[in-house]
Design a protein that fits this description.
Distance between the termini: 73 Å
Organism: Bradyrhizobium sediminis
Subunit structure: Homotetramer.
GO molecular function: cAMP binding; intracellularly cyclic nucleotide-activated monoatomic cation channel activity; potassium channel activity; protein-containing complex binding
Function: Cyclic nucleotide-regulated potassium channel activated by cAMP.
Strand content: 5-15%
Pfam families: cNMP_binding, Ion_trans
Radius of gyration: 31 Å
Number of domains: 3
């Protein structure tokens, strides 16, 4: 008796999707489904191709339901079904799968029910790497951000009370109460200035100018806090990635944590595709390279030498003659760590053992190349 084909298909699907934020198929389904949802609201286009639009929408919805069921099944098999179901990802998957069918089942008009497909866009969120950094920034800077929010609300309420006092006699309809003036305060403080409600008294206009200036200051504070924190978080992530790469290079393996941290601050990473020329013979050299991953080929007179992960090159131009002595090209996709001339001299001064190792290797290569 042959075994059912369902389990292998599910196993293959889980293997391809469970460990990733979003599969290529899911990206295509989200883009296609949202596009069809938008087309659904354009009556002439929908009337002309409603069969195709409906079919594509149902196909996308079927994919999201299938994906949700598979993920849920996989989570329960791993004894974390409840954790997945209540997680952000699980809730997005569940809403994406159930919102439209539930709306249609409850009697919503199809053109209105399918608008809930907008929730499908949230499935893209886990695949956006910068959002994790942004979430960490918001958590770390929650105190300053909330402080600025309090200032914003204070200015909002105080300006509403002040303009009510100044304008209530001149414009009783627009500024007759504090709740009514809140609309003007929000519009003015955000410097949108719709112009539907404006003060007419001299003092009211002076107040409006001050409120607009305060709005610029408040939003400038928010922008500055977020920009500074995001830049710091980006530097932190880059440092950790470079640290991980540096620690895997055999040349730096003997260094302690403090020395690796020192080296990490100096190095910059470079990802290169295959057959990319890194160094051209005769050019002035201002940096050396360490191979973190990949392979390069050194084109010497009469022979070619291959250098793999852990090797370094370009140091001879920094130790003596500043002209490159050979062409060097990647033979496959490679990750290189680059050390500039100024940092090279600082590193050699701080770590004489590294300087000695590099000097010995440079002399050995010089003898080989004669």
């Amino acid at each position: 008796m042959s075994k059912p084909l369902v389990s292998p298909v599910l196993a293959e699907f889980v293997a391809a999707t469970a460990g990733r934020n979003m599969t290529r198929a899911a990206y295509v389904a989200v883009a296609t489904g949202v596009g069809m949802m938008v087309l659904l609201t354009v009556d002439p286009a929908y009337q002309a191709a409603h069969h195709w639009v409906d079919a594509v929408l149902w196909a996308c919805l079927s994919f999201f339901i299938f994906e949700w069921v598979v993920r849920l099944r996989h989570a329960f098999l791993a004894d974390r079904g409840l954790a997945y179901a209540v997680s952000g990802r699980g809730l997005v998957d569940g809403v994406s799968a159930a919102a439209v069918p539930l709306a249609l089942f409850l009697g919503a008009d199809p053109q209105s029910g399918w608008l809930l497909g907008v929730f499908w866009m949230f499935k893209l969120v886990p695949g956006i790497p910068g959002l994790r950094q942004l979430r960490r920034v918001l958590v770390l800077e929650s105190g300053p951000l909330l402080s600025v929010l309090v200032i914003f609300l204070m200015v909002l309420f105080l300006s509403s009370v002040a303009v009510h006092f100044l304008e209530r006699d001149a414009q009783p309809v627009a500024f007759g109460s504090v709740p009514a003036t809140l609309w003007w305060a929000v519009v003015t403080l955000t410097t949108v200035g719709y112009g539907d409600v404006v003060p007419v008294t001299p003092l009211g206009r002076v107040l409006a100018a001050l409120v607009m200036i305060c709005g610029l200051g408040v939003f400038g504070l928010w922008t500055g806090i977020l920009a500074t924190a995001f830049a710091a978080e980006t530097r932190r992530d880059n440092f950790l990635k470079t640290w991980e790469t540096v620690s895997k290079v055999p040349f730096f393996a003997a260094l302690g944590p403090s020395a690796i941290a020192d080296v990490t601050h100096m190095l910059r990473t470079m990802d290169l595709p295959s057959r990319t020329m890194i160094i051209r013979k005769g050019q002035a050299g201002d940096c050396m390279y360490f191979i973190a991953d990949g392979e390069v080929e050194v084109d010497l007179p009469g022979k070619k030498v291959t250098l793999g992960a852990g090797a370094f090159f370009g140091e001879m131009a920094l130790l003596g003659n500043n002209l490159r002595s050979a062409n060097i090209t990647t033979t496959r996709v490679s990750k290189l760590l680059v050390l500039d001339l100024v940092d090279f001299r600082m590193l050699m001064a701080r770590h004489p053992d590294l300087a000695e190792t590099i000097d010995v290797e440079a002399k050995r290569r010089a003898l080989e190349n004669k």
